[in-house]
Specification:
By secondary structure, the protein is mainly beta. It is built from 1 helix and 31 strands. It has one helix spanning 138-141, and strands at 9-13, 22-27, 31-33, 39-45, 49-52, 59-61, 63-65, 77-80, 86-88, 92-97, 101-104, 113-116, 122-124, 129-132, 146-148, 162-166, 170-174, 181-185, 191-193, 195-199, 234-235, 243-245, 250-252, 258-260, 270-272, 274-275, 289-291, 302-303, 307-312, 325-330, 336-338. The strands form 11 sheets. A 4-stranded antiparallel sheet has the order 1-2-4-5, with no helix packed on it. Strands 8-10-12-13 form a 4-stranded antiparallel sheet, with no helix packed on it. Strands 15-16-18-19 form a 4-stranded antiparallel sheet. A hairpin with a 5-residue loop joins strand 23 (250-252) and strand 24.
């Protein structure tokens, strides 16, 4: 057996337990000598007892004052300890960062500690530092349709907000009357915005001022391209009976209004439907029938709704009816139709 030792001490004995064998007692890990005596030697004496050869050492626990832990806090950080005013060897206190900073550590990015050492000092995890929260590029974080309105001098938490507006084709949605939105770097390291930019939408209603009211039927854009009515979208309106679509189309402008496409500005959107200028094709030969088509006041072009009267020449009578004349109508399909 080993010698009887005081609390916190340990004995280092050889294998021999014979008379004259020795053991050396020192303070155990986490303890330190409370006096100048740092070790005590024991001899195996007669009677098979261990006898101390000099003053018996006394050991007390090593402690680290928690009030001193702040000395190892990183710049812009603190060390917080819970519990008693004295920490034991191996006890740890938490490292945290000041407002506007976040922890950076190669060991554990989420947390870091300062630990009570064997010599009673505090040691912080060496790579644990506090870095200022950085939200990164303001321009890269802008929402869809937004553009930076002026230089953004900060990208870190606590800096001045950065302003933005909307690109052509977008409108600002914001509470209040401010013409610009702002972005602020948050504690989570991301930009937050007090406004958004939404695509300008011309809607489905095309006002009379954008279309020829005399020839266009209705004011609804019935065939928007790709089912959208936002900036750049085109649409075609229905023409009134007797008219057909021309070569132009309407385009949604950045101001949210429909207008005739710039590439064909000035052309009529709907043009009259016309029938053959030679009049209807007569059933019989030209010598036996005549029409009033092409005679004043009925002159080409013959638009939808025009009427021509065909009658038999002198010496001929109708053989299909008792009427002496036959009427043809220029239809909305652009063809002469027998009435």
């Amino acid at each position: 057996e080993k010698p009887t030792l005081p609390d916190g001490a340990q004995a280092n004995c050889g294998e021999s337990r014979l008379l004259g064998a020795t053991c050396t007692a020192t303070c155990d890990v986490g303890y330190e000598a409370s006096t100048a005596v740092e070790s005590t030697e024991f001899n195996c004496a007669a009677g098979h007892t261990w006898q101390a050869t000099d003053t018996l050492l006394s050991c007390v626990r090593v402690t680290c004052p928690t009030s001193e832990a702040s000395a190892v806090a990183p710049d812009n950080g603190v060390v917080a300890c819970s519990g008693s005013a004295e920490a034991m060897v191996g006890d740890a206190c938490t490292v945290s960062c000041s407002h506007g900073y976040k922890l950076s550590s190669a060991v554990n990015p989420a947390s870091a500690t300062a630990t009570c050492q064997l010599d009673g000092s505090w040691l912080r995890e060496p790579t644990a530092t506090c870095v200022q929260i950085d939200c990164g590029s303001f321009v890269d974080a802008l929402p869809e349709g937004a553009v930076q309105s002026a230089g953004c001098s900060t990208r870190v938490f606590g800096g001045n907000p950065c302003a933005f507006g909307c690109a052509p084709g977008y409108s600002l949605q914001i509470d209040g009357s401010s013409p610009l939105g702002t972005g602020t770097c948050g504690l989570d390291g991301s930009w937050s915005f007090d406004a958004s930019c939404i695509p300008v939408d011309c809607g489905t209603d095309v006002p009379d001022s954008a279309r020829p009211p005399a020839t266009v039927s209705g004011g609804t854009c019935a065939t928007p391209a790709a089912a959208t009515t936002t900036v750049g979208a085109t649409c075609e309106l229905a023409c009134k009976p007797g008219f057909k679509r021309g070569d132009t189309s309407f385009e949604c402008g950045t101001d949210g209004a429909w207008r005739v496409s710039a590439t064909v500005a000035g052309q009529a959107y709907c043009e009259p439907i016309t029938c053959a200028a030679t009049g209807p094709e007569l059933v019989s030969n030209d010598a036996s029938m005549s029409t009033d088509c092409g005679l004043a006041p009925l002159l080409p072009p013959f638009t939808a709704g025009s009427l021509c009267t065909a009658s038999c020449a002198e010496g001929y009578v109708p053989h299909t009816s008792s009427a002496s004349t036959t009427q043809f109508l220029c239809s909305n399909a652009g063809s002469w139709t027998l009435l």
